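User: Predict structure, ligand ISE.
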Amino acid sequence: MTLRFGVVGTGAIGREHIKRITNKLSGAKVVAVTDVNQDAANSVVEEFQLDAVVYPDDKTLIADPNVDAVMVTSWGPAHEATVVAAVEAGKYVFCEKPLATTAEGCVRIVNAEMKQGKRLVQVGFMRRYDKGYVELKEAIDNHVIGEPLMIHAVHRNPGVGENYVTEMAVNDTLVHEIDVLHWLVNDDYKSVQVVYPKKTKYAHAKLRDPQLFIFETKGGIVAQVEVFVNCRYGYDIQCEVVGDEGVAKLPEINSIALRKNEMLSSKILNDWKYRFVDAYDVEIQDFIDSIAKTGEPNGPTSWDGYIVAVTSDACIKAQETGLKETIEIPEKPEFYK
Ligand code: NAI
Ligand code: ISE
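Assistant: Predicted complex:
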């Protein structure tokens, strides 16, 4: 069986995913695309020589009987409407983060999916497919480091545009840690506090940068996450879990150690598309394969997307108040267990 994708949003990551589905992965092809910028949609068909229809909008794309699965790679605020419409039409959905920009929006998606009676949606939390995070989780699950006590994590981007404001450190960037850290340690968040260190001279007026998020889980683990999106030197993701029997740390990326000019150096990447290239491949291949095998996607669910949205709301409140804010994680429905 070939899974036929319709792609909504042919910007940066939309093009990356179209490229990997077309040139690298197996069991799927892109048969339809749309973008509010029709030139972008047309150019992607030309660039990757796709045998695909260019639709004027998501509604007409979803209605195409040749589209089995909708890939949502438009801007975050547009995700909810497309995902709900696709689920109501009974289509599979691979949605990039965030699932929706509000917790209420995620609830509407969860309800629409439960009404269909089977899992249709996978959210693009690709770190769960990254080799380093998978090894870290195995070490934790196998009690190699004993009981996890603390997590130190770093999420650094070289720079951001003028449209990236303080809240986006949560909705656009921290969302990856919100999802992956509680998954790593099998625990739920209880509270969050935000501390603003001295501001970098490279951040514009509407952006506090860097920011430090301090989470506490129900089990008592403290996770501190630095988000620094104007670090200049590269794209740098770090994660260290401290246990009572040892410490496990995300490996550095594979690179030769260069000895030259009285220096010992190794490479640092500069973009998410390179740092997580393998993880994106594996996550989308898993989406394709599990639908072929079981009729349902197997990766992060709409419920996971909802939990991230609930946690993000508390983080944004904590950004505003400077106080320790409670995170109320709702009970998971049987459907998602
Ligand atoms: P982008 O701005 O490069 O591309 C978004 C595209 O969507 C644009 O071409 C825009 O015209 C189109 N679009 C917007 N609203 C639309 C609508 N209603 N219908 C059809 N097309 C629409 O943005 P980028 O970087 O590709 O991000 C897209 C999504 O992917 C975002 O939600 C972002 O958070 C997520 N993302 C995830 C990453 C990850 O590491 N998992 C990395 C980068 C982005
Ligand atoms: C981007 O949208 C991503 O999802 C990247 O993984 C993240 O590092 C970056 O901060 C976001 O802007």
